[in-house]
Design brief:
The protein has 252 residues and is an alpha/beta fold. It has ten helices and seven strands. The chain has one domain: 3-Layer(aba) Sandwich (Rossmann fold). The protein has a seven-stranded mixed sheet with strand order 3-2-1-4-5-7-6, sandwiched between helices.
């Protein structure tokens, strides 16, 4: 990834977080689709060691896991997000850093969390996964969520190609998607063994269509989206998958 694009992407996130609201983000943490992941991955984490959320943003996940008894620290390259989080809760353990050059020793962390982060780098998920492997203890847990190229995404990309647009969302922002097979291959190359691979957030795929699928409130899905999403999760789990959750262990 070029330095210019990398810097523009980081600045885009700085701008996004400047006006962000932690209370609204905490509301999202209580929505049903959040528990498709939050209701699962904590069972795979250790309470005996340190868990890092790499790309923690406003640190609402850290707040939630801390309340559950985990020793969680956060890191993000968007300093503005961390300032907002510290103003809200000064007790949070947060650090500015880069997921490709983690400021932690080899074999020092018991868990590594990454929620919708690694897809924003043009170089792909591989380099960050290798760095995650370095800092985890043998057998340490990695939890990853990455956007999936579902049917809606494919239709949007087809429309963009017809209009002559590039794969970039805009001039300053880059995002890639991965199939679950591609992600498992990337995990294996980085020294991980997949433990769980699960499609999630089908209702949010529908939310992206707008109209009756969007409820009132901050990124809130409607009852129709939630009900139809639950059906799609059973009958077309990958076709309408919004985000793939992977849980893996460091080999060795």
């Amino acid at each position: 990834m070029s330095h210019d694009l990398y810097d523009r992407t980081r600045q885009s996130w700085e701008d996004i977080w400047e006006d962000a609201s932690i209370p609204l983000e905490l509301e999202v943490m209580e929505q049903a689709r959040t528990y498709e992941t939050l209701g699962v991955y904590p069972d795979y984490l250790s309470k005996d060691g340190i868990i890092l959320e790499a790309g923690c943003g406003l640190a609402t996940v850290i707040m939630k896991l801390r309340d559950m008894g985990f020793n969680v620290i956060g890191m993000d390259y968007a300093a503005q997000a961390l300032r907002v989080a510290r103003n809200y809760d000064p007790a949070l353990s947060l650090q500015v850093g880069d997921v490709h050059a983690l400021p932690y020793a080899d074999n020092s962390l018991h868990g590594y969390l990454s929620f919708g982060v690694l897809e924003h780098f043009e170089r792909g998920v591989g380099p960050a996964l290798i760095e995650a492997n370095r800092v985890l203890v043998p057998g340490g847990t990695l939890v990853l969520t990455i956007p999936y190229p579902n049917i809606v995404w494919r239709l949007v990309q087809f429309k963009r190609r017809l209009s002559g647009q590039s794969r970039l969302t805009d001039d300053d922002f880059y995002e890639s998607t991965y199939t679950h097979h591609q992600l498992k291959a990337e995990l294996e190359k980085a020294g991980f063994e997949a433990v769980l691979v699960r499609p999630t957030s089908h209702s949010f795929t529908l939310w992206g269509l707008g109209g009756p699928f969007q409820g009132k409130g901050y990124y809130r899905t409607s009852r129709l989206a939630d009900r139809l999403g639950a059906v799609l999760r059973r009958v077309l789990p990958w076709t309408f998958n919004f985000t793939t959750m992977l849980i893996a262990r460091k080999v060795g």
